[in-house]
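Changelog-linked ticket: pyridoxal-5'-phosphate example.
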Amino acid sequence: MSKKFIPVNNPVMDGNEKAYVLDCLESSWISSSGKYLDRFEEAFAEFCNVKYAVACSNGTAALHLALLALGLEPGDEVLIPDLTFIATANAVTYCGGTPVFVDIEPETWNIDPELIEGKISSRTKGIIVVHFRGHPADMDPILKVAGRHGLFVIEDAAQSHGAEYKGRMTGSLGNIGTFSFFGNKIVTAGEGGMIVTNDESCAKKMRLLKNQGMENVKRYWHPVVGFNYRLTNVAAAIGLAQLEKIASQIDGRTAVASWYQEYFQKVPGFRWQGDKESSNRVWFLFTLVVEKEIRSIRDGLIPYLLENGIDSRPVYYPLHSLPIFPERSGAQSYPVAEYISERGVNLPTWAGMTREDVVYIGDKIVDYLRR
Ligand SMILES: Cc1ncc(COP(=O)(O)O)c(C=O)c1O
């Protein structure tokens, strides 16, 4: 293996992270209350231009709390894109609901608004859109169809911190928006999540549920069964420091994505996520689609890149094909999700990478395909 190693992601901790965490340690405020939690929630609400932000333990918990606050019950159906991280589907399953898969748009790889209506049944309660890889889903037609059928809309914005749709922050357009602060995200707290909304009653419910269902004013009084989905002050300290410098993280990743595009524009046989004019996207990850790949990306290209010191990841399997949804496999076709899943590879994307790194990665991919 060559000495050079380029990880898929490398969180940059060059702001106030260390000072804020040290402050937590020195003051002993390391658990699930403290000033950094308050400041992080306030700053995040302001960033998204919403009334309420509720911090929680991770992006999956955020989705679970959002669905519970919107009243999802066993037997209900929720429409979600066929190509997303499993957490989007799992949160529906945790509530006893059924995720119903919708294929994605060929250009943006987001849930295809034109296919939504055909998937609505008498049991459908809502839609979870995922702003895939940082590209906003086409919210206007989605909100319109949801309004016509009385459905809620949750935005899974785990990958889209700072992305805008028609001048509004992703996460702020539906009933509730959810974010993840896992280590590879544009804003990270190590692990962590945030839920944003303008609905006061939803915000109150989510705060109650995330803290064991315990009433705020009446200690150890539990009107509902809740969860321990709390975030720590230490994680919030890291998250706040990260949020303070989000602009440089977004710019750094955008530069990397533009270098990939510049490189692969010159070589036939590749494509990547397209842009919609209505969107001011961010780049969570640059996913390259290798159109002429005849072997599996997972078996061929990814191990070859690793031998050359380049970490990469396959795209998710389409959800309908997973063993946890046996009844869904083969029942319908999801051609776009299948195509992107089979041929897509997630390449290193983080602020701090250089143009030389990108050219090195590009050269290795081209070498591999020539072999
Ligand atoms: C689209 C999407 N939804 C939800 C999650 C879950 O977030 P977490 O890992 O913080 O639970 C992720 C995390 O990668 C994600 O990418």
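Closing comment: Example verified and attached. Residues 246-265 form the longest helix (20 residues). Residues 58-60, 84-85, 87-88, 130, 156, 158-159, 180, 182, 193 surround pyridoxal-5'-phosphate (CB under 6 Å).
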